Amino acid sequence: MIRVGVNGYGTIGKRVADAVAAQPDMEVAGVAKTQPNFEAHTAVERGYSMYAAIPERAPLFGDAGIETAGVVDELVADADVIVDATPSGIGAENRSLYASYDTPAIFQGGEDASVAQVSFNARANYDAAWGADSVRVVSCNTTGLSRLVAPLDEEYGVEKVRATLVRRGGDPSQHSRGPINDILPNPIEIPSHHGPDVQTIFPDLSIDTMGLKVPATLMHVHAVNVTLESDVTAAHVRQLLESQSRIYVIPEGLGLDGAGKLKDFALDAGRPRGDLWENCLWGESIATEGRDLYLFQAVHQESDVVPENVDAIRAVTESADAEESIERTNRTIGVGL
Ligand code: NAD
Predict the structure, then answer these.
(1) What is the model's pLDDT at position 337?
(2) 169 bridge partner residues
């Protein structure tokens, strides 16, 4: 059993903990939190041992009726792997803590790529993380683009990717984010930083990205144009993408015309928290013209990186190859619509 500690139990951390708990070869060693809020109570109800992320705040947990098993250092010492899901920038600050206990660490996409030895996407570069001491699971948008680029590059060769990212202003619980009534080129500089982030996975890829932020919380939507190295047909591309386990090619006729209905669909399907771990790619949008491919896909920012974290844990512990890990993760959490 791989004992996994989760430091930072928020949007990503709580989902990763539940996904880890569903694995037959892993167990949650504990979770570390800064405060005894509603998520802390949920963690305890789910049976996760609670550790104080900030030792001086440990008494607050007792005051709130939550028993702690210790402080974060003890969790790091006890765990075989730590998943750091703290807010952007805190992961880098925690790096020395993990190194001091020789505990391999999985960081998230809000961190700079330099935080870890390797940036990771299971479909694209699983083997690069094999036995690594530190791995960064790339951001939600970079994960969505990497899952798309990997099969296209293998099948046809990719000459150039151009993607426009229509980004949600914030997650549903982030009430102070925005815009609340605007459409912002964001980042306004072109190309945006997303392209270079995809290049941490595909160093030789030619990619330009542009970003906008809109008053939405549900998902990001990507408008993608890929120039391939050979002529393609839409039908062939569709077949290829339908064969990818973490891409859901939305069939025509279901009325899934946007992120709102996709989220409803996930809730109706009984998905935990209404999560959509797969890229949701509109089949009807797949269009080709010579070597040019066009399509739209939506990415659920709160959950698409979750199966990637589980696979990263297996890669750093050298416990399963890519195919086996991806299959096991998908089966146990229920990826595939
Ligand atoms: P979040 O704010 O929802 O959760 C972070 C949690 O860490 C909170 O519970 C916070 O209280 C806690 N925390 C703060 N300081 C801490 C510390 N010193 N030690 C331990 N815990 C601490 O953030 P999130 O959205 O889950 O993001 C976590 C990481 O995942 C970031 O790098 C982010 O960029 C990345 N990410 C986020 C999304 C997304 O859309 N939410 C998608 C992909 C990747």
Answers:
(1) 87
(2) none
